[in-house]
Structures are given as structure tokens and as C-alpha cells.
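Notes to self after the call with IL:
- keep both proteins in one doc
- input above output, always
- annotate only the second one for now

Protein 1:
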Amino acid sequence: MTASKGLIRYPIVIELGDRNNAHGVSVPDVPGAFSAGDTIDEAITNAKTAISMMLDDYIERGDALPEPSSIEVLREREEFLNSTWAFVDIDIYKVNAKAPPSIPGKSSAMSS
């Protein structure tokens, strides 16, 4: 999480594609958020859209937003061994104006 108010940084896993297959992206901390793209840049951009849509659903239901994990912790999981990683920054207030006052990973000192 960055210090900017409302900004959440989620790690994403990139499954590299090839000439015949798109690059795939999954978001371990946001169940149901995944994407693909013909280029890595496109796959990451599409992941940002997928995460935003899922977080909007969380907010609309009144559910707590998922906490971002550390890549160091995630990469130890067997399904992520030898994976390619990146981060996607999400401005939760651009996702939904009804965003909760408490953003995952933020201490109250950072929010003031």
C-alpha cells in the first residue's frame, strides 16, 4: 500500500503467453479477478479493470476490501513458484465514490 490516500497496490501473477496464447493475469488477493492480453501491458491494464470491477462489487455489498499480500509471502505458495509478478495500483475512490473510510493496509495515522 502506498501512502497516497485511497491507493491500494495489489500484486498480480502473470502467466506469460506466446505467439499462440495470450498472457494471463490472476490476482491472488481478489478472488474472481483475472485478465488476459496479447501483450503484457494489455494484460496488466485489463487486470486493473478486473480488480476495479471486483472491488466495486465489494463496496456495493458493504464487504471489507481484501488486504494486499506481500509478493514475498505469495511467491512461496506452490502454485506461484517461478511466476512473474507485477503490481497494480487502484485508486479506490475512482472505483466507487462510496469507498469505505478504512482502506486495507492503511494505519489510522496514514489516513489523517
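Protein 2 (the one to annotate):
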Amino acid sequence: MSTTVMRFGRSTASVPEARAFARGVLRNACAHFLDDVLVCVSELATNAVRHGVPVGGAFLIKIEADDQRVRVECHDANRRRPRVRHPADDDQHGRGLLLVEAISSRWGVGDRPFGKYVWFELDLRPPADEADRPSRLLGTLVGGSKVEGTVELDVPGQGVVVVRTGQADVPALLRTYANRRVAAEVDALNGPSPVGRERQRRQLLGLSLHED
């Protein structure tokens, strides 16, 4: 397994720099999943800049990769552990870890002597036509983000599920379906994690009211 590390300063410019660093490291290692990795790197770097790095300090991105998985760690000097939030429909922030949870195979937080590190792992599976299959989610549309291009469905037995909408108009979807029971047709690439949690990368194909 190869390991690459880089430090970044407490600046908003460090977020795209961290993305560029990850892209350069992983461009050939996980081309099919690179966009997923970069979204998660952006979220961890943004949280570090906003909440984890003191003035004049820095955060560290550590990337490990082999042919089975990618692991990314974001180290900072704040020992306060982040938590997944479920923001209101009109909030423009607070969805970072919700996205990381939805996209990654697994994630967590570890302690350092003078801070913490937030990590995620992504299992690498070559795309196969038989793996891509449409599926149906039944739940309540509880939120969404125009910025991220996602909607959030509260699905019984699964909790809040983040679904990418592509070119769909998120505000229009929320005006029509918010807090209503819906049926979402999604394109999903599935893969089980070692701890038994199913990782799903979902793209919205269609949305309609669900009639019980």
C-alpha cells in the first residue's frame, strides 16, 4: 500500500489545493471512483479549515491506496469530534459528513496526542454492467442542497439517504415533494463493507409521490 502526505495552511484556498493533491495521487489508482474521493476530501478539508485549525496552524492530508481500497485521513489540532448533522432544507452548510457517510464505504474519527483525525475509506470495485442496476427507495423527502445537487430521503430501515440529482432542479423538487412520501427511482452501484454496511452510490432517475 502506498502512502502520501501533505500539509495545508488555514486558508480557504487549501480546500481546492487538497483536492488537487488527492487528484494527483489517485488519478491512476481509482479513476472510476475519483469524483467520490474528491467530494469527501473537500468536505474533510473544509471542516478542518473552519473548525479544526488554529490561526497560523495547518492540517494534514494522508492518503493510502492499493488495488482494494483508498483511505484518506485529515489531521488537525482540534480534539472536538465532528458529528453528522441533518440541516434544514434552506441551510447551505452542515451536510459535509452526511455526504461522506453516504459516499464512503466507512468513516470515523481517531485521536492524536494534540488533536484528532477524521478518516474515510472507499472500496475499489471495477465498474461492471451487471453491478449497475436501478432500485427504488420509498421514504419521505426531508431536505436537499442546491449547492451539492442532492436530495435527502428518510427511508425506513436506512435512515437519511443522500441521492445525487444531476441536472434536476433541487428547489423545484423540494417545493413539490418536501415532507411528502415519495418513490425515488435511483441508479445504484452497490458494494458491502467489511462491517456489513452496504455502500451505495445513488443517482436520481425519477421521483414521484408514493400512493400507499
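Annotation: The helical segments are 14-26, 34-52, 96-103, 170-177. The two ends are 50 Å apart (CA to CA).
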